[in-house]
Specification:
This protein is α/β, with parallel strands linked by helices and 549 residues long. Helices cover 22% and strands 18% of the residues. The chain is built from eleven helices and 19 strands. The longest helix is centred in the last third of the chain and has 20 residues.
Length: 549
């Protein structure tokens, strides 16, 4: 058995799945990587704002097709309906959200891994500590930044978590708006810094530097300078000869042998024909919603409530990020619209330890908006339609600056993903069903951070400011969804162990945001990547005995 070549199935070719596939394939494990979408193509997904992954009013450039992949929503007013459009979907393509994301590359703060220890128990919330610390994950943050590629510099940020190696690329310079707001922040005693980005500021890893395209967020990069798993680790995995990528394949069930082992999966192939494949190891990285859905749909005599769900924790604690902030109208052009994507300056002065606030949050100048999105971010009282509307757009687009950011949502047992047995997708599989809302602290946190953004913009000379709330209504998972299969040491209150292995299973792992215990007050993708490197390393060492460090 020492010379056996193990086989693995990885479900989902996004931030987590792509990295695990590379780690396994590079260490002589034969991997089949399943992706429900296709390879991304910039030429096929042109810069139409209405089909960008951020707007999706006329569909989603990178899928999925909402008609074929509906979801059920339970609103807080008791209504239940079927949504045949994008609701808490991540992009369906090789690379998933790493193709179309804004590419902010944040490390979670040390406090984010020990929220209960830091703030105490929160009534009405399932707030808990992670079973690992920031120091446990720090080497894998280093590895993610190096292998995927991050440009940054935290020397001006006294609140940044400790790091032992510099970023592999220099930071992007401030945009016109970012530079102006940075100077204003300094004048009032704040600590602005360059936003770290998963984009090439200089040629890196065989690909060119960013050309500062305005249409970056929600779209693929036209020069392949935005770094995701589709253009970094997945090609490396394929080059080993040990990784086969199966696109347009929808995995719908994990099979077990009744002895605590996963033995394979069933999927619909590119011709919509049901197929089954076996493997020694199975890794699920399909997103917090779809991973929970897959486990819940994988019922068997051994797991009558779905795999890993003996204690009713699969699908619970669904989290995302509520966004908040403020906009300001200036009497001069604050934007330079010739270069993008504009986000370049951030502050973390209010990230933790604010009186009456639980958790972290970030403020940064916002990505450029297209005209449609801009229409929804104008000041109160601005014209809504007709000639006056267009006149306002033309005269004021360059004069509106923004400070926005996410807050750390409180996890809730009632905020959950289940499966709707009465609603099926195109292939006849029960779809994901969403229930629950927000903890009252989320709205309080949003109001706090919006007020800080408003103060900064007024100090910067804005002649009019207006705030954006958040933290109310239904869940806000979106591209930042997390929490539905949280890791922990106690199987009674968690789904996986600290390496993403489902407690009840010997060889079934999860490697996406669903294992996050809490989701930080920062974009989670770099944490998903770091965890995937850690999980991949663990699988290799456990199954092959090879030390990868």
């Amino acid at each position: 058995m020492a010379n056996k070549q193990y086989t693995a199935i990885v479900v989902g070719a996004g931030a987590g799945g792509g990295i695990v596939a590379k780690e396994l394939a590079s260490n002589h494990i034969k991997v089949t990587l399943f992706e429900r979408g296709d390879w991304p193509s910039y030429d096929k997904h042109f810069n139409d704002e209405l089909i960008s992954q951020r707007v999706q009013d006329l569909g989603a450039s990178f899928g999925p097709d909402g008609k074929k992949n509906p979801r059920v929503i339970n609103s807080l007013d008791g209504k239940r309906w079927v949504a045949d459009y994008a609701v808490n979907h991540v992009a369906a393509c090789v690379g998933s959200g790493t193709v179309s994301y804004g590419a902010m590359a944040w490390r979670f703060m040390p406090e984010d891994f020990k929220m209960k220890s830091t703030y105490g128990a929160v009534e009405g919330s399932t707030l808990e500590d992670w079973p690992i610390s920031y120091d446990d994950l720090a080497p894998y943050y280093d590895k993610a930044e190096r292998e995927i590629g991050v440009a940054g510099d935290m020397s001006d940020n006294p609140f940044a978590p400790n790091r032992h190696v510099p970023y592999p690329m220099p930071p992007f310079e401030y945009s016109k708006e970012g530079g102006y707001l940075a100077e204003m922040c300094k004048k009032i005693g704040l600590h602005p810094f360059y936003v770290p980005m998963l984009r090439n500021s200089v040629p890196y890893n065989g690909r060119g530097a960013c050309i500062r395209n305005r249409y970056c967020v929600g779209f693929a990069c036209p020069v392949n300078a935005k770094n995701g798993t589709h253009n970094t680790v997945i090609p490396v995995a394929m080059q080993t000869g040990n990784c086969t990528v199966r696109t347009n394949c929808k995995v719908y069930k994990v099979h077990t042998d009744g002895k605590g082992r996963a033995v394979g999966v069933s999927y619909f192939d590119e011709n919509d024909k049901s197929q089954t494949i076996e493997a020694d190891i199975v890794v699920i990285a399909a997103s917090a919603a779809e991973t929970a859905r897959l486990l819940l749909n994988s019922k068997s005599p051994e797991f009558p409530n779905g795999i890993g769900n003996n204690n009713d924790w699969v699908g619970r604690n669904f989290q995302g990020h509520s966004y908040t902030g403020a906009s300001g109208l200036f009497d001069f052009d604050i934007l330079d619209v010739t270069t993008g994507p504009n986000t370049s300056m951030g502050i973390m002065d209010y990230n933790h330890h604010n009186e009456g606030i639980i958790g972290g949050g970030l403020l940064a100048n916002e990505f450029y908006m297209g005209p449609y999105s801009f229409s929804g971010h104008r000041p109160p009282g601005a014209p809504q339609w007709g000639k006056e509307h267009k006149k306002f757009q033309r005269e004021n687009y360059n004069r509106i600056g923004r400070l926005f950011g996410p807050i750390q949502e409180m996890p809730l047992f009632e905020a959950r993903v289940t499966v709707a047995e009465d609603v099926k997708d195109y292939w006849g599989v029960p779809v994901a069903e969403f229930s629950g809302g927000h903890h009252p602290l989320d709205a309080k946190h949003c109001d706090f951070l919006a007020a800080k953004a408003d103060e900064i913009l007024k100090a910067a000379g804005a002649v009019q400011t207006w705030r954006y709330g958040g933290g109310t209504g239904e869940q806000s998972g979106g591209q930042h969804q997390a929490g539905t299969c949280r890791m922990g040491n106690d199987p009674a209150t968690s789904v996986t162990d600290s390496y993403g292995r489902i407690h009840d299973m010997e060889n079934l792992y999860i490697a996406d945001g669903s294992i996050h215990v809490t989701n930080g007050g920062l974009n989670p993708v770099l944490t998903i990547m770091a965890l995937a490197f850690r999980i991949g390393e663990h699988i290799v060492e456990k199954w092959t005995g090879v030390k990868t460090k």
